Amino acid sequence: MINKTKILTFGEIMLRLTSPEYNTIEEAHHFIANYGGGEANVAVSLSRFGHDTYFISRLPNNQLGDSAIKHLKGNGVNTSFVDRGGSNIGIYFLESGFGGRPSKVIYNRKYAAITSIHIEKFDLKEIFQDAKWFHFSGINLALGQQVVDVLLQFLEACKQYGVTVSFDCNYRKTLWQEIDPKPFYKKVMPYVDVCFTSPFDAINLFGITSSETIKEKIDTDLLTKLMDTYQIKYLFGTKRTIYTATDNALGAYVMTLKETHEVSPIRFNIYDRIGGGDAFAAGIIHGLLNKEEDLEFVLKFGLATSVLKHTIWGDSLNLYEKDVLNYMQNESGKVIR
């Protein structure tokens, strides 16, 4: 099924420090280190699916930056478009939830290298030549005006070179503080072809309103208006039911201006919650690049990719296309011999 494609992702990769054995951050005496970040996670998964993936960012020229580069390269991601400079790498602390206790994240990413990124460090012709896809998320929009300015120039280049753009709204309330995110989200939407979003985003990030009174009709109306406003080709999203922190169900939907598809929820146990949305985005992108004519399959592949990520420790899914296809055919967890 693999149609190998040059894919670009732009964003911040961070050092993740996890308190072990479901311990609280306060009580932890040591932390488990690994690397992750929305767009980097998408690049890793798509690399595993057989694509030529490139991560665009800025990392400090020290051992932490080297380690992040090693993580990316080790998962097949090309890092030739990562600028080196600055002194800090973004860090986040993760406390994994269990049962009725939810997971918690504490960010420490102020003055991270990416916040001092400069467009002059990048050769746009080299980056975008032969590229087919560009992916970014709303987290970039909260990292400062300098990051936003660089992102907008990359998006202009996408228009110039005919590159498909996907955008995961990925709203994180703690990153915005007193700043209204709406103007930032609205500014990038005219460049977006494929959007990962929700009715919540339509209201709170784009100011879309609905005159409907029934929840299901409200949700559909909000998303339809969002698509129509920005002429989005595809809109994807998930619907999560939380029974406990380690027991969830996940369904998914795709909308165009002409049709809507939904797939039934899958209930599963969680080993690591982080990165499920990034895996969904990667699965959808891979599906669209290889089987766009079958949106139901694309949706099921994306959902299966996300569910499988919840069974993998770390930020990114490091399985292959064959693993996802096998899961789609056999969800029992039976040993493969």
From TrEMBL:
Residues 4-308 form the Carbohydrate kinase PfkB domain. The keyword Transferase applies. It holds the Pfam family PfkB. GO terms for molecular function: kinase activity. InterPro entries: Carb_kinase_PfkB-like, PfkB_dom, Ribokinase-like. Keywords: Kinase, Transferase. Belongs to the carbohydrate kinase PfkB family. This is Putative 2-dehydro-3-deoxygluconokinase. It comes from Acholeplasma brassicae. The gene is kdgK.
